[in-house]
Amino acid sequence: MAMTLSDAIIKCLDEIKTPANYMQVYKKIVEDHLYDFKEAKTPASTVSALLGNFIRNRDSRVKRIPQKGGNFTYFLSKYESEISLEALEVVDNEPKYNSVQEPTTIYGFEERSLHKLLSSFLNSSGILSKTIFHEQSNSKDSHQKWIHPDMIGIRFLALHTKTSQSLMKAINRKGIFELMAYEIKKEIKTDYELKKCFFQAVSNSSWANYGYLVVFEINDILMDEIKRLNQAFGIGIIRLNANPFESEIIFPAKYKELDFITIDKLCKINADFEKFAEHVEKYVTADNRYVSALEKELADFCDPFFLSETASKAYCIEKNIPVDNIPEESKVS
């Protein structure tokens, strides 16, 4: 049986051992006669797309390292311990071939375009969320934006009877909901970027029950350090997917008590945050007769979200967010 292109890519990476870009992999496939590209119009791009597909499908065999200009190098996970730290920072200076177009990368879209994807993922988990625009705050101090999360979320405790709901409200109103803070990034590719983004998330979520760093594209090389930081500081990590329903919490956040002094400060300087707090207060203190109406009012105030993969895919294409598609010519056996 003839070797598939995916198998040929794995074989080449196994023989190369060190990080290689898609063109290097393509050239070795051709030189070693591992696959016949006669039906592929742009064979190098096909290799590039399939390499990206290994990453998007969370294939444990393959990892990649971001390079300048939105490019990547790829290697097999089993050789990770043999790769030097210097190699992780190498910039690909190999001449580009005019006949080959680089695949769409994550650099071509606005970070805030990810908010609707995150709100969709959170909504599927029973969390209502709201974007907080720090530039609309009335504070002149630029450092104050380090207390603003990109998004905030609320999850209500599932109490099924009116009696238990009333009892919880009477005893401890804080106990019927949890507040989350989310710091969102398009990509994190180096240890320096990880530290900067992580401690921004620590600062911006100091008031909340849970704090999360949300990343669309993250270098798998950093996972050990992410685990250490998560255990030390309790910030959770969410890997966001173009299909929001395939997003995942890589490391959960640790619970902490609400900091009402910082909440009060945020309410003073940001109208959206204050409005959110008002909606929550009205909901948790309302008579049961008005709960449904106030829940709808809160939901309408919060960010919109997708109900289907089709809608989210169309949105990603419109916003230039990479989707988990590969060219037709790469669907070969």
TrEMBL record:
All copies of domain HTH HARE-type, residue ranges: 3-79
Alphabetically ordered keywords of this record: Transcription
Protein name: HTH HARE-type domain-containing protein
Source organism of this protein record: Chitinophaga filiformis
